Amino acid sequence: MEKVRRSQRALFVAKAELAANLPVSADLNPAYAEADWPYAVIAGAYRTGVLGLRSLVRRGVRAASFDSDRLYPGFRSIYGHAHVCPDPDAEPERWLDFMIELSGKLGGKPVLIPSADVFVSAIAAHRSKLASHYTMSPGVPLQGLLATKETQYELAATHGMPMPRTMLVNSAEEVAAFANAAQFPCLVKPLHFREWQQFPSKHPLSYAKVSIAPTPARLLEIWRLASAISPNVIAQEIIQGPDTDKRVYLACYDSRSRRIANAMFRELRCNPMGFGPATVTEPVVDPETDEICDRFLGSIGYSGICEIEVKRDMRDGRVKLIEVNARLTGGGDAAPYAGVDLCWLHYLDLIGKNPAPVAPDGRNFRHIDLRADVGAIFAYRRARLISWGDVIRSYKAPRAFFDFDTHDWRYSVETIYRMARSAVRELVRSLLDRS
Q1: Structural domains in the chain?
Q2: Beta partners for 278?
Q3: Residue 203 needs a FRET pair 20 to 30 A away by CA distance; which of 13, 31, 68, 405 works?
Q4: pLDDT in tens, 131-141
Q5: What angle do CA 128, 139, 60 make, to 5 degrees?
Q6: Model confidence pLDDT, tens digit, residues 309-336
């Protein structure tokens, strides 16, 4: 088996080197936008939206964003102007009116790129009315299906994407049926994490993305808690293994569903530990995972930017799906530092520039989400999984930061403030634990 994997790795590296050495036309993959190219509109002004703006504005693209929450960092970033919009979940018709009006203000037919699931769903729901006002990926309908866990896992099962045991449950009887066949511990997920945001702040599931069930009794208890909002939840076995066995596959597929960009990263830490988004990653060559993810997206005819999180299950050695994010992501910010500017290539494709495929350049670095990594460091230290030496080594150059940019000083100052606040909170917790 190891010999086969070495052969696969060598083939993968050879293909990557070949792709990297192919002649790339300056007309196909220009470095900067021309003055008359259309506006780009990033749907979402959270941190993932800022990275999309940063990518495009640095390339000379006129860009703007929008969101319903004025507190999001896009409203303070130097990269593009952020517009306040209605919440598309609460006021879908007002949101649609806003979108049509925004297109008119910007002029032409702006390129629309989502950076948050709420807008992935809204764009998919209103695509027929938005189509005459915005240039959008032909993958919008599929992106809408991937934005909810139920249809995402249905697509994965139908198209052969390996998954842990997963079941949509909506009754105590179905919870029991799943528990009888499952290996514990398991977890429960809402169909979309926005559902659990409706709980009061002190509710056990408030703003949780997953809830862990070590036993069948706890699984049933979580379902009963969740059913106050919706009885329809996902029950799933937990993929066993360390966080370093997680992989983040990043790619962009053009309007013809051809892969034009790809990169792969290994997770070093995440927050929350075990189940949250990566806080530190590094490039990795993993041909098996690349082939699994590319085959799945090719099978469903995907177009657009996509991130797939997977993990190798130590019980059977198989790579299994954690989740698909059919949009700009925080992990996707690592790709440009590996020579793969996903958002720029996606923009070029949507405006008809037919970009040539781009492969990772092979450089080694660590990509760090500073705000989230403070909490991750203390959590991994409490679990005795890392030493302070490991922390120092993970911050050694070469490195790149998701949320620190000397050109975007307001955003960076906010990052430093949040890091300091998190560090103080964790230190106080550590002192209380010792007392």
Answers
A1: 1-27+239-403 (3.30.470.20), 31-136 (3.40.50.720), 165-237 (3.30.1490.20)
A2: 270
A3: 68
A4: 999 999 999 99
A5: 95
A6: 999 999 999 999 999 999 999 999 999 9
